[in-house]
Amino acid sequence: MDMRKMALVAMLTSVACLWYARAAEAPILSSAELIRNGIYRLAVESYHVPLEKAMTLAQSIADTAAEYELDPVWVASIIAVESWFHVRALSPCGARGLMQLMPATARGLGVMDSYDPVQNVRGGCAYLAEQLRRFGTPMLAMAAYNAGPGAVRKYGGVPPYRETRWYLCQVTQVQMRLAEGMAS
């Protein structure tokens, strides 16, 4: 599902939830609250993040994504694939934290502690926003996030790397699952 469809699903979900809430005279949740609650549910139910930590992470992801004008559902999906919401994740190649920042990239983004979830999400969102501006589409931005901007430039699009193609599919699947979960 492309970003326009995802945005439409999110908008329709918000409208449906607002209508239902008014009809039932229940408290009305904003789109931001729906997104934050969806991320929270994903972290708790799919990745077994403790409840209190999940709410803090969901709020941080939603706030930071909004600051960088990124879709928080997209950012949460990237985190799910990169680290499974494990704050202290460490990859074999040395990438660290929720958004799996390489040490040099983290330093360049001003991240002093890659295991600090707020710093890591801020750095990851800054880098993702930079790739989105550079390449113009979410798919190419994700490819650059995973394989590096040099690989995307070299191949004039998504690199033919098996890992990168798997990564794009996984992020898209988590994003669709999260959007569907918010709609139900």
Question: What descriptors fit this protein?
Answer:
single chain; 184 residues; mainly alpha; Lysozyme; 9 helices; 71% helix
Descriptive overview:
The protein has a single domain, classed as Lysozyme, CATH 1.10.530. By secondary structure, it is mainly α. It is globular, with a radius of gyration of 16 Å. 71% of the residues lie in helices and 0% in strands.
Secondary-structure map with pairings?
Blueprint: H1 3-23, H2 31-47, H3 51-67, H4 72-83, H5 103-108, H6 117-135, H7 138-147, H8 149-155, H9 162-183
Helix pairs in contact: 1-9, 2-3, 2-4, 2-9, 3-4, 3-6, 4-9, 6-7, 7-8, 7-9
Summarize the structure.
By secondary structure, the chain is mainly alpha-helical. 71% of the residues lie in helices and 0% in strands. The protein starts with a helix and ends with a helix.
Instruction: Supply the number of structural domains.
Output: 1
Query: What is the N-to-C succession of helices and strands?
Result: HHHHHHHHH
Instruction: Return the structural class.
Output: mainly alpha
CATH classification, class level:
Mainly Alpha
Work out the number of β strands: 0
| Average of per-residue pLDDT values | 83
Helical content, roughly? over 70%
Q: Strand percentage, roughly?
A: under 5%
Number of helices: 9
CATH architecture: Orthogonal Bundle
Shape: globular
Low-pLDDT regions: 6-29
Radius of gyration: 16 Å
CATH third-level topology: Lysozyme
Sheet of most strands: none
Could you tell me how far the N terminus lies from the C terminus, measured between alpha carbons in angstroms? 17 Å
